[in-house]
Design brief:
The chain has helices at residues 14-25, 95-98, 130-134, 167-177, 194-201, 220-229, 251-264, 280-290, 292-297; strands at residues 2-5, 31-32, 40-46, 63-69, 75-77, 83-85, 113-115, 118-119, 139-140, 153-156, 180-187, 204-211, 240-245, 267-272. The chain is α/β, with parallel strands linked by helices. It has a domain at 1-103. The strands form four sheets. Strands 7-10-11-12-13-14 form a six-stranded parallel beta sheet. Helix 4 runs parallel beside helix 5 (194-201). The longest helix has 14 residues, at 251-264. The radius of gyration is 21 Å and the shape is globular.
């Protein structure tokens, strides 16, 4: 049986690790697909990102069956130039595979665990595919032990764990591992309460990620409250905050979010929607903000030398 990680091997693909674990439990041989000169009974191709960021690979010609899956295969580009999620093209793993403990051996270059203990998000943001794929209610789907077997670090992939009604239980589980926790996909600052912040304060943190994507919702007070109650800055900042640009925000709104977060002690990180088609000014904004040496040296984007190469 062969595996293809269409997005590359820059981060473990949870679906492929579960598929590998299930097939090995059946006594099958599992390996990364690598040549057309070897015959495979079945090849699985997994893709997380859309074609704009991760181009598909040719269909293997040396397999009896090829199975494609993952969010990336269900994302289409509409006539409005925006990405849309086609639910008819998205299929979940069978239950017997979905609940397999991940086979971390296929990604030996990574020494951390990956966990997805809740799915779904109530926000339903038009630029995000989580609600269409997993529903608009954040629900617990697994325990931490279903992903973790003693690794010193856990990358948490839950799309909105802070909106889950079982978050107290999940946060307790993450705390009790004693592992370094990285909330990779971001915590929803609008859902954080004092108990959440207390739990986070008692975790070993690699980093905390948030998002401030909606330019029409002022989250300054929410971020200020977390900063006032947080006990530590993992990387000299209270957390990394993703900022969506080139979607429905003006430059004034972009800069307001960036300056507000910086002044509160956060590390803003600019994300560009449909980057290949983004105007030069937005790409320069990202280059200025995300290069932390430049960002600290040049305090205002208005003073940034946009004549330099790389924009």
């Amino acid at each position: 049986m062969g595996l293809i990680d269409v997005d590359g091997h820059n981060f473990p693909n949870l679906a492929l690790m579960r598929i590998s674990a299930w097939h090995k439990a059946q006594g099958d041989t599992v390996e990364w697909w690598w040549t057309d000169f070897i015959h495979y009974d079945i090849v699985y191709m997994a893709k997380v990102f859309s074609d704009a960021y991760s181009k598909d690979k040719p269909t293997p010609m040396n397999a009896d069956k090829v199975v494609r899956g993952g969010t990336g295969y269900a994302i289409t580009l509409g006539p409005d130039g925006k990405e849309h999620f086609d639910t008819s093209k998205h299929h979940n793993l069978p239950d017997e595979i979905e609940h397999m403990f991940p086979d971390y051996s296929i990604y030996p270059q990574f020494d951390f665990a990956v966990a997805m203990t809740s799915r779904g998000c109530p926000r339903g943001c038009s630029f995000c595919h989580v609600a269409a794929k997993e529903g608009r209610c954040s629900v617990k789907v697994a325990d931490v032990k279903d992903f973790w077997n003693g690794q010193k670090e856990i990358q948490v992939l839950d799309p909105n764990i802070t909106a889950c009604k079982d978050k107290r239980d999940l946060f307790r589980q993450y705390r009790e591992t004693g592992a370094v926790i990285d909330f990779n996909q971001g915590l929803d600052i609008r859902c954080l309460n004092d108990d959440d912040i207390d739990d986070i304060n008692h975790m070993k943190l690699k980093n905390v990620h948030f998002a401030w994507d909606d330019p029409f919702t002022d989250l300054k007070e929410k971020f200020a409250r977390y900063a006032a109650l947080a006990r530590r800055k993992p990387h000299g900042a209270y957390g990394t905050v993703y900022l969506l640009t080139n979607y429905n925000s003006t430059m004034e709104q972009n800069l307001y979010r960036i300056y507000t977060l910086r002044d509160l002690g956060y590390d803003p990180y600019v994300m560009i929607y449909n980057k290949p088609e983004a105007p030069k000014e937005i790409r320069l904004l990202q280059r200025w903000c995300n290069n932390k040496y430049v960002f600290k040296k040049v305090r205002r984007f208005e003073d940034y030398d946009t004549t330099k190469k790389g924009g």
